[in-house]
Design goal:
heterodimer; A: alpha/beta; seven-stranded mixed beta sheet; B: alpha+beta; five-stranded antiparallel beta sheet; about 30% helix
Chain lengths: ~350, ~140
């Protein structure tokens, strides 16, 4: 998933991942178990090995695809550091500081369990001491001005999506006789925004046993420009129909489930998976006077660091979330002739 | 007839021209430097060891890209004011650049702010700010 010229992307990678999640029921259960295994990298959960992705000219092999996700999305170091050892935010900051500033700040460096006040205080102490080589706060992978546990967010988002699809409570084991339902999962990637989130939304028709789980990875930018003219995209055209002249089978999703055995499932849902708080980092001071030709272009706009654990949050309907039973459309009262005459 | 003051102005303008051109050499192709208002006519405002030059630099964003952004192929204009510290050897250049205007030209503004707490009305922001910075609330 190297980046898109539009604000919304599915592309080959998410199409294959969708089919991986929606296809064989036993595979779905296996993927859920693999994702729940926190000792296993997300990139080792299988779908990247599919030859269906070999057509991507930049990532023709499973190794190349794994490396891309690990490095550009999840921020693994390029030096071959083994998972899950990744430098923390504070470690990356310290590495960029002048030698003289490092010892005092290293002593108070916040770890992965730091609180927001601790991280705010530490970064506020760092900002005035950065040197001319510090051209911005560290970022995770290719995400613009954002540092966070992207792998953790992606993992939790996919776990939640699979659990909703299968009608499981969070962490619940699959029943021995199989899940109460399987809703098809659809995946999208939307950018840019200031920090990384995974959204899990769904609808479920209680009477028909049909529905869908829609996942959106909403992310900071990766630096790639957005097309101002949608038709300039490679192979883009103005469609007139949703039918296709192409023949052959498409990916098959789950069949409608039996509404009688999972009647308690919410008709609608909308969850967001992200860090407990996304903390805005202090603006770095200007470089001051520099010799001719020695320039430092500052970061444009704010930078954020994810603080605290990855959490799954259900926004309320007044804040834009979805009510569990949705809302039924009510016809407006019909007007009377007398009103019309007025 | 050129005076020492004129020569000093010319030297400052030339130095800033070189500095700005070098600063954008890897970022903007086909670059053009010019003096900007309100100092365009005099070139440099000099007071003792200090000189001020207002400038603009126009070029095409088709090289390495700014700030880890991919290049856009857009022609953009960057404006700035440089304060030259002539006490130092070599001179030092304090550049006040309108990076926000450049950011807008690159199309990378996204139009939302962030707040640590839920704000649904401006009064909420005023109350939060009063708590955070010990300001009066409600404001008089």
């Amino acid at each position: 998933m190297p980046g898109m010229p539009y604000h919304l992307e599915k592309g080959a990678w998410l199409s294959v991942l969708e089919d991986y999640l929606n296809g064989d029921p036993s595979r779905t259960a296996t993927v859920l178990a693999l994702l729940r295994d926190q000792d296993l990298p997300v990139t080792d959960t299988g779908f990247l090995e599919s030859p269906a992705l070999d057509g991507d000219p930049e990532y023709r092999t499973a190794d190349a695809r794994q490396e891309h996700l690990q490095r550009d999305w999840f921020g693994w170091p390029a030096d071959g550091t083994a998972w899950p050892t990744r430098p923390t935010f504070a470690e990356e900051v310290l590495a960029l500081l002048p030698d003289a500033a490092r010892p005092a700040l290293a002593a108070t460096a916040p770890g992965v369990d730091a609180t927001v006040p601790e991280m705010r205080a530490w970064t506020s102490a760092v900002a005035p001491l950065v040197g001319a080589d510090f051209d911005g706060w560290p970022a995770t992978g290719f995400w613009h001005q954002y540092f966070g546990d992207v792998e953790g967010i992606v993992r939790e988002t996919l776990i939640r999506a699979l659990e909703v699809s299968l009608g499981l409570d969070h962490g619940q084991e699959l029943p021995a006789d199989g899940p109460v339902r399987r809703l098809p999962i659809e995946l999208f990637w939307k950018c840019p925004q200031s920090w990384f989130e995974g959204w899990v939304t769904w609808r479920y028709d209680r009477s028909e046993g049909t529905g869908q789980v829609t996942v959106l990875f909403t992310t900071p930018g990766s630096g790639k420009p957005i097309l101002e003219a949608a038709l300039e995209g490679e192979g883009a055209f103005e469609p007139r129909t949703s039918t296709t002249p192409k023949t052959g089978p498409g990916p098959a999703g789950p069949a409608p489930s039996d509404p009688t055995i999972n009647a308690d499932q919410a008709a609608k849902g909308m969850w967001v998976v992200t860090h407990r708080q996304n903390l805005q980092l202090p603006v770095l001071p200007s470089a001051g006077g520099l010799p001719s030709g020695q320039w430092l272009v500052p970061p444009f706009g704010p930078a954020y660091v994810g603080v605290g654990p990855v959490v799954c949050v259900q926004p309320s309907e007044p804040d834009g979330g979805a009510a569990a039973l949705g809302r039924i459309y009510v016809e407006p009262p019909t007007s009377t002739g007398a009103d019309d005459a007025d | 007839m050129p005076t020492d003051h004129h020569a000093a102005r010319d030297a400052c303008v030339k130095a800033v021209h070189q500095d700005v051109s070098a600063g954008f050499a890897d970022l903007l192709s086909a670059g053009a430097f010019s003096l900007d208002e309100p100092l365009a006519e005099i070139g440099a405002l000099i007071d003792g060891d200090w000189a001020v030059v207002a400038w603009r630099f126009t070029g095409v964003d088709d090289l390495t890209g700014f700030n880890n952004l991919w290049p856009t192929a857009k022609r953009v204009t960057v404006t700035g004011v440089t304060i030259v510290d002539r006490r130092a050897d070599p001179w030092l250049f304090h550049r006040q650049v309108d990076w926000n205007a450049l950011n807008a030209q690159l199309g990378s503004a996204n139009g939302r702010s962030s707040s640590p707490l839920l704000i649904k009305h401006p009064d909420t922001a005023r109350e939060l700010a009063a708590w955070e910075y010990d300001l009066p609330f409600p404001r008089g």
